[in-house]
Specification:
Radius of gyration: 35 Å
Strand content: 25-35%
Helix content: 25-40%
Strand order of the largest sheet: 1-2-8-5-4-9
Number of helices: 15
Distance between the termini: 97 Å
Number of strands: 25
Largest sheet: 6 strands, antiparallel, barrel
Shape: elongated
Oligomer: single chain
């Protein structure tokens, strides 16, 4: 246009188009793929490029990857002008302190420490250009050139879905193994080119870096990757996905930030909404668990207990630690699942034993009689209980059978292990506790030597029983004198 006619209208229309484009959000993690690096006299190493996410300010600590060299930002220029801050989408030059120019090059990434690492394997959602369908058959294990950010590296292509899907022009899942580790994040765009002649054949979005080559025939893999690919496009969905698929069934905010590459403030906001909707639950003070994961873990726990009840109908249930170890759960996850099952009325706890709601311990006729026979030995000698050898001699029970029945009586708290090899009947524990409380409330203190007179027994039995009450928190010991540790409850210890 040499006359200038219509130029004002063109500018107006162009301005409207520019204003209609939403600004790139700058609330992500700062990441700048380096376009180039140079040395400026008086300043040292300068990294130039356009940040793809987040923002950075003077004095911020950054890390150069894949080298792992950390530095502080000493100077920022945006579009050639000094600035205190650089935002995603702005053309910038960043002066780095304590950084050797020979370490810096195109394809490197400047970012915040603790979130990114250079990776070798990437799962991607790929679309083949339609014009390439006929002339570029994709081969599993074929060599391609992989471009993302400012990185350009040779790679091996692995098809995760049938080759017909890959050549249809529709999105399909692939995995690439780059020849040298690069830095890229979930959702980053990429393109693939042939090696020779160089020709663009397609592109797409990176789903996520993984630590090894995936086996496409693994059950459930493709469906999981499809869900992951859909989640990556939406930060809230990706956070929920990461919680749902946490390797230890639960994950903390820091772990979520590292996986999703979202800043802590954004993670906190998304978690708050997920908690409000009861999609996730907070456990152990700093961990989060998906509601579906909790339900699955709860059913697994109940199934294990049901199997245990079937194998040991005489037992009132399993201890919490037995059940936790049998399921391989971490303590925070286990405690949260148990609490949910109790609140739903599907799990009960009595005498520190967990059982499926409705379970009643049952003894066979002969075993019930044998248990009564064993109990009678301890009831007759309440504060001078027999040893197991003495019980075996009195009852005639074989050692293995006696041991099994004694364990059952302990589970029901009809016998209590006070010291190594020394058992007392539960009635003896309750009576000794009552005598102790009455004496200490009246006298305020008890010398160890006097306890045997309260029970009319010997030091052999009195002292281990005193030590037992120390361990369970009833007494406070000062030298050889005992005091009540706190106001006792009305129940037995």
């Amino acid at each position: 246009n040499v006359t200038g006619e219509g130029f004002d209208a063109f500018l107006t229309a162009l301005e409207q188009v520019v204003r209609s484009v939403p600004p790139r959000p700058s609330d992500g993690l700062f990441r700048l793929p380096l376009d180039r690096a140079f040395s400026a006299k008086g300043f040292g190493a300068v990294a130039a490029g356009i940040p793809v996410a987040g923002f950075a300010s003077l004095g911020d600590e950054v890390v150069l990857l894949p080298q792992g060299a950390t530095s502080r930002i000493r100077r920022i220029e945006v579009y050639g002008q000094p600035s205190n801050t650089v935002l995603a989408g702005q053309c910038a030059a960043i002066n780095l302190g304590h950084c050797d120019l020979h370490q810096v090059g195109r394809g490197d990434v400047l970012t915040l420490p603790g979130y990114f690492t250079a990776e070798e394997y990437f799962v991607c959602q790929f679309r083949l250009l339609r014009r390439e369908n006929a002339k570029t058959p994709l081969r599993n294990g074929g060599e391609v050139k992989f471009h993302t950010g400012t990185s350009e590296v040779n790679a091996t292509l692995y098809l995760l879905e049938p080759s017909d899907d890959a050549t249809s022009g529709d999105p399909c899942l692939i995995q690439v193994r780059v020849k040298r580790p690069i830095v890229a994040g979930p959702g980053d765009p990429f393109i693939l080119r042939t090696l020779s002649p160089v020709r663009t054949i397609g592109g797409g979005r990176i789903v996520e870096a993984v630590d090894r080559r995936l086996k496409r025939n693994r059950p459930g893999l493709i469906e999981d990757l499809r869900q992951r690919a859909a989640a990556v496009a939406d930060p809230a969905r990706f956070v929920e996905y990461a919680v749902r698929n946490a390797t230890e069934a639960a994950i903390g905010a820091a772990g979520l930030a590292k996986r999703t590459k979202l800043p802590a403030g954004r993670i906190d906001g998304i978690l708050t909404e997920l908690l409000r909707r009861q999609t996730v639950i907070a456990i152990g003070g700093s961990l989060y668990m998906h509601r579906v994961t909790a339900a699955e873990a709860g059913q697994k726990l109940l199934d294990r207990l049901t199997d245990y009840h079937g194998q040991s109908p005489e037992s009132p249930g399993m201890t919490a630690e037995q059940l936790r170890q049998a399921g391989g759960w971490s303590k925070p996850v286990f405690d949260a699942v148990v609490a949910l099952l109790k609140s739903d009325g599907r799990l009960t706890e009595q005498n520190q034993r967990l059982a499926v709601a409705g379970h009643r311990a049952t003894f066979g006729g002969e075993e019930a009689a044998q248990c009564d026979q064993i109990e009678s030995q301890f009831l007759r000698r309440l504060f001078a209980p027999p040893s197991l050898a003495e019980v075996a001699a009195e009852t005639g029970l074989p050692a293995a059978k006696l041991g099994q029945l004694v364990r059952i009586l302990q589970e029901h708290q009809r016998l209590v292990l006070v010291a190594d090899g020394m058992l007392f009947h539960g009635d003896a524990i309750d009576r000794a506790r009552a005598l102790l409380i009455a004496h200490l409330q009246a006298k305020g203190r008890l010398d160890s030597v006097d306890f045997k007179y309260l029970l009319d027994t010997t030091r052999k039995f009195a002292l281990p029983l005193l030590d037992y009450f120390d361990r369970v928190g009833l007494l406070r010991r000062v030298g050889n004198t005992r005091f009540l540790k706190s106001k006792p409850s009305s129940g037995s210890s």
